[in-house]
Each structure stands twice: as structure tokens, then as C-alpha cells.
Design a protein that fits this description.
The chain is mostly beta strands and 212 residues long. The chain folds into 2 domains: 179 residues, Distorted Sandwich (Coagulation Factor XIII, Chain A, domain 1); 30 residues, no CATH class. It has a 4-stranded antiparallel beta sheet with strand order 1-2-5-10, with no helix packed on it. Strands 9-6-11-12 form a 4-stranded antiparallel beta sheet, with no helix packed on it. Strands 3-4 form a two-stranded antiparallel ribbon. A hairpin with a 2-residue loop joins β7 and β8. The longest helix is centred in the last third of the chain and has 7 residues. The radius of gyration is 19 Å and the shape is elongated.
Length: 212
């Protein structure tokens, strides 16, 4: 993913389920003189094109199939932010043990998920009153344990060309979503994986909404 999607306006974004963004009582913090700047930034993760929603309202994605999201950032202040480095990391939201390929896999909350979990946008400019949308995605491999997962967002800001950027936003729970176990209808063959269509899922598992 690149930063080419920067500059899209809010009204151009297709409606989607907005993640739970925890501000009060959440692990959100800023470093040094950047604490006050958070008051002028509205940050949210929106998960797009989910395959289903859980009873708790979380967007659901199947292991082995793409999860897509939008990171929306709005500058409500009167200053322009320059030289922003933005990172989104897909992590486990819970701790536990699962079994994949006959082996037990232990995982803890905050651990990176398997595969390519990190996306970065460098040297971003956010002008006063501007809203930007950064689009990202992740395909959880079959080694992924099912359960709630989180999108960890970090924003760093370089002042006056300093080499060491200060962390102005750090939120491990900027977004929460839910991949269930791998689709039981998918055939994991030596020469590849065959994924069922929506109609096939309805035919084979009509009573299990998590696989529709």
C-alpha cells in the first residue's frame, strides 16, 4: 500500500461500519509537546466490505480472504501538520492457544498476526480543515488463530527536520474486527486452495451465519 490515496474527501468514501474508537480510558497517548495536538485530530478505522457482522457489531473477515480498511484522519485545528509518518499494524486482540496443522500456537494480546501485517505511509501532510483517507488491507494466512483482532495505529511527527520523530498518537485498539475459523468448505489441496462462492456457502452451511 502507498500514500497515493491521501486527499480523498469524507463524502467520497463508501459508507461502512465504523470501528470502536476508544478515546477515554484507552491506551491512546502522545509524546512531549504533541499532547495538545491530539485535540485537533479525529482518527478512526473503518473496516470495508466485511463478509458478515458479529452479534456485537464487529466486522467479520474469513481467514485466507482479504480484510480491507480505511484509516480516516481529520484535522480540525488551524495549523498544518507536515512530515507525518503513519503506521497500521494488525495484531491479536486476545490471548489464547489455537491448533493449526496439528500444532498448538500460543498467542498474546498485542502480538502481530502472521503474514504481512504492517503498512506505512511516510511524509504525509495534513492541512488545516483537511480530511484524508488511507486505504489498507491484510490477508490473514491459515496459520492465523481465530478471534478478535485489532488495528494498531501509530502516528509520528518530525519537527524542524529532526531525525528522531516524536510519537503523537499511539492506539493499539484503534479498530477491532473478527476473523472466524477458516472456512470448512475450502479445500486445502497440495496444488492450491479452492474457495467456495457465497452460494456454495449457503448450500453447505445454511444455518451458520459466520460462514455466509
Amino acid at each position: 500500500m502507498s500514500g497515493e490515496d491521501i486527499g480523498l474527501h469524507w463524502g467520497a468514501v463508501v459508507p461502512a461500519v465504523v470501528s470502536l474508537l476508544l478515546i477515554l480510558g484507552s491506551p491512546v497517548f502522545a509524546q512531549g509537546n504533541h499532547t495538545g495536538e491530539l485535540r485537533n485530530l479525529e482518527i478512526e478505522v473503518v473496516y470495508t466490505n466485511p463478509y458478515f457482522y458479529t452479534d456485537d457489531g464487529y466486522a467479520g473477515y474469513y481467514i485466507g480472504l482479504p480484510m480491507t480498511y480505511e484509516l480516516r484522519i481529520k484535522n480540525t485545528g488551524k495549523r498544518t501538520f507536515m512530515h507525518l509518518d503513519i503506521t497500521a499494524i494488525q495484531e491479536y486482540h486476545e490471548s489464547g492457544t489455537c491448533y493449526r496443522y496439528g500444532e498448538g500456537i500460543a498467542y498474546s494480546k498485542g502480538d502481530p498476526m502472521p503474514g504481512e501485517t504492517t503498512e506505512k505511509w511516510s511524509d504525509v501532510t495534513l492541512r488545516k480543515g483537511e480530511e484524508i483517507v488511507l486505504r489498507g488491507g491484510y490477508v490473514p494466512p491459515y496459520a492465523t488463530c481465530d478471534g478478535l483482532d485489532q488495528t494498531h495505529v501509530i502516528i509520528k511527527h518530525s519537527n524542524n527536520g529532526n531525525e528522531e520523530a516524536a510519537v503523537m498518537y499511539f492506539n493499539p485498539e484503534a479498530g477491532i474486527y473478527c476473523p472466524p475459523p477458516p472456512d470448512e468448505v475450502a479445500l486445502d489441496l497440495d496444488f492450491g486452495t479452492i474457495y467456495p462462492t457465497y452460494a456454495e456457502r449457503k448450500l453447505f452451511m445454511p444455518y451458520n451465519k459466520y460462514y455466509l
